[in-house]
């Protein structure tokens, strides 16, 4: 497993460097060629580079052991980076929208040949990175892979626009394509911002049914009831839960068996930190509360 992780980190490093370098190339190429759609595609490249960096950070951070003053380590750093990423992408998309609007009424000349060559190279970079990331079961890597795939589609759109301009000399297609790409960037940015805030506020994971988690706990033999449940997300691939378990079992060995069964039942929800407080029937009346969703 360690070798596999090392290879994955190496792949991510290469992918990050290639993607960021080509982001710079597309920005320069967009300014030289006058292509706004190429600059929009550069925005997608920046999103990919940041998504890959977050995935790499998640793997690296996971290796760092927590300390007495940092109980969960630095996992939240990934979410802070994601929030900054989303805000930056939103700002970029808004700028592209305004620029596309002005160019729609006053199209500017575009060097289609330069636009085509750079967009084609960007497509090849995306295909290479996508090939290297394809097949991973890690949630972060799969998310980064989908970012790369969507960027490959945007590169195809820019290539189409460059060919259209070359044969028709209708530069108006450039702001049209750039506006579409900016919209896709904005949608992605808003999703990233929303998910980041959702996690930072300690809300329950969006992809998990709170009721299903409760029912999974209750299925464990010896569990009579569950209450005072707190379920939240630490980072993109770690969920946390604490709960009060009502049981009539009193022996330590019995309670340990119940705990092991509950943790096993919760594995499918990607819950990696579990804190359970066992209570006897006699004391349940004074503390039992309705399960709380955080």
Describe this structure in words.
It is a single chain. The chain has helices at 2-33, 36-62, 75-105, 112-133, 139-168, 173-200, 210-218, 252-266, 284-287, and strands spanning 223-235, 238-247, 271-279. With 294 residues, the chain is mainly α. It has two domains: 2-200, Cation efflux protein transmembrane domain (Alpha-lytic protease prodomain-like); 210-287, Cation efflux protein, cytoplasmic domain (Alpha-Beta Plaits, 2-Layer Sandwich), CATH 3.30.70. The chain has a three-stranded mixed β-sheet. Helix 3 packs antiparallel against helix 6.
How would you concisely characterize the structure shown here?
This protein is mostly helical. 67% of the residues lie in helices and 11% in strands.
Taking Cα atoms only, what radius of gyration do you get, to the nearest Å? 25 Å
Unreliable residue stretches: 282-294
* Beta-strand content estimate: 5-15%
Q: What top-tier CATH class of the largest domain fits best?
A: Mainly Alpha
Estimated helix fraction: 55-70%
CATH topology of the largest domain: Alpha-lytic protease prodomain-like
Average pLDDT value?
Answer: 82
CATH superfamily assignment of the largest domain?
Answer: Cation efflux protein transmembrane domain
> What structural category do the secondary elements indicate?
mainly alpha
Output the strand order for the largest sheet. Answer: 1-2-3
Give, in order, the helices and strands. Answer: HHHHHHHEEHEH
Largest sheet: 3 strands, mixed
Q: What gap, in angstroms, lies between the N and C termini?
A: 34 Å
CATH architecture term of the largest domain: Up-down Bundle
Count of alpha/pi helices: 9
Shape: elongated
* Count of separate structural domains: 2
How many beta strands in the DSSP annotation? 3
């Amino acid at each position: 497993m360690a070798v596999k992780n090392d290879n994955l980190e190496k792949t991510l490093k290469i992918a990050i460097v290639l993607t960021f370098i080509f982001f710079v190339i597309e920005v320069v190429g967009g300014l030289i060629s006058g292509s706004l759609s190429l600059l929009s595609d550069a925005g997608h490249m920046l999103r990919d580079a940041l998504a890959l960096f977050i995935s790499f950070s998640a793997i690296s951070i996971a290796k760092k052991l927590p300390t007495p003053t940092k109980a969960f380590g630095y996992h939240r750093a990934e979410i802070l980076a994601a929030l900054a990423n989303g805000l930056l992408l939103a700002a970029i998309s808004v700028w592209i929208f305004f620029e596309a609007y002005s160019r729609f009424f006053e199209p500017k000349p575009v060097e289609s040949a330069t636009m085509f060559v750079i967009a084609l190279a960007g497509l090849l970079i995306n295909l290479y990175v996508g090939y290297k990331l394809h097949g991973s079961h890690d949630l972060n890597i799969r998310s980064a892979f989908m970012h790369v795939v969507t960027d490959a589609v945007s590169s195809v759109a820019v290539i189409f626009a460059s060919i259209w301009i070359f044969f028709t000399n209708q530069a108006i297609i450039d702001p049209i394509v750039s506006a579409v790409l900016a919209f896709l960037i904005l949608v992605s940015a808003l999703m990233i911002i929303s998910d980041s805030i959702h996690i930072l506020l300690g809300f329950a994971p969006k992809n998990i049914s709170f009721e299903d988690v409760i029912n999974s706990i209750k299925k464990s033999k010896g569990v009579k009831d569950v209450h005072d449940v707190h379920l939240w997300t630490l980072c993109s691939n770690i969920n946390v839960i604490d709960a009060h378990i009502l049981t009539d079992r009193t022996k330590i060995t019995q309670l340990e068996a119940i705990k092991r069964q509950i943790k096993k039942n919760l594995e499918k929800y990607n819950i990696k930190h579990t804190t359970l407080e066992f209570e006897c029937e006699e004391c349940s009346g004074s503390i039992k509360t309705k399960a709380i969703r955080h």
